[in-house]
Amino acid sequence: MGTGFLFLYIITTFGLASFFVFVLIYLLVIAPEKGEIVAGWLAKLSTWTGKRAQKTATAIAIQSKVNSFTKSIETEVRGLLPYGLKIKWVSPDITKEAFIKENKVIIILSHHHNQDENLSKATALYMSRAVIPEARSHIDEKLCKAIDLMMTKKALYSFTEARSSFDHFVSNVLRPLTINDNTLKDYCESIEATEERGLFTRILLKELLELGRRRAGTTETGDTVFESNEFVKHLKKIAEKDRGQNIDPNFLKKYIRMSVILVARPENIEHGHKPYINAVEKYGIKNGARTIYIFSRGERNNIFAKEVVSLCENKFSTLAKLHEEEYPTTIDTGEIKSGYCAIFYSRKII
Length: 350
Description:
The protein is of the alpha/beta class. Helix content is 57%, strand content 17%. The strands form two sheets. A five-stranded mixed beta sheet has the order 4-5-6-8-7, sandwiched between helices. The chain has a three-stranded mixed beta sheet with strand order 1-3-2. α4 packs across α5, α5 packs across α7 and α7 packs across α9. The termini are far apart.
């Protein structure tokens, strides 16, 4: 009687439970060499399902972190990161890429045993597609790269339960890319300065986002590339200005027209609201700024700035307040203080 017929006889005569008992005895005692083969198959199956489950869990965790970050950015700039994230794992020999489909950035990526590598790579690929997509053809290629790197850094730092991914990215990606590329390094340092002051997303990326929307479908002649480069330099000067130092608050060019009013000097606050209201009128309204930003930091300054904003709302019918928020900001000593930002649009220029 062959083994197959024996198995069939046991099932029909004694039932399925008895069959499994017999198989176990057969594999362990009667034919142990076949038992080893079956054990190998089971081990491979267990490993495969285990790896697949691990990949799925990793993808879900990364997607959740990045999607949460995109929602938090909405409080800074509405529509800055409009896409969700979906990860598809592939073998290492397939080219890594990212593309947009059904309002999501689809990332094709090979799974790595190092979870910091997975998170930092996925986040970087996401940023390369999700941040200011319409503006990319109108700004310098290395400025685009710097924005991607610094947005990745910003996102990874926000993942407090996975902070090691931030260290991994800085050590293995950011530093190696900037150490021998002075242009890229300068852009990253300029962005870092604006980020510390709260200007990176709220002004730089917001203005570039709108630049891309206004210039969508047009052929780039180089004008916006030059203008956006000058804009980055201008914002760095504002972000790094010393107390008491006078910096032109205006950037009034062909495509980007904005003014920044900083509420910072105690001696100016002592003179009341009028100097700041006059500054909004002089630098913003009369000079034809499309957007007027009012920034402050520190409890006293923030309260005063809000009063200025309220007075401007009542006085200037040509201005529309479109955004207002408080956020944490870093001062020169490294101390974290509460910052405040309000954004006015000119109804004449919109």
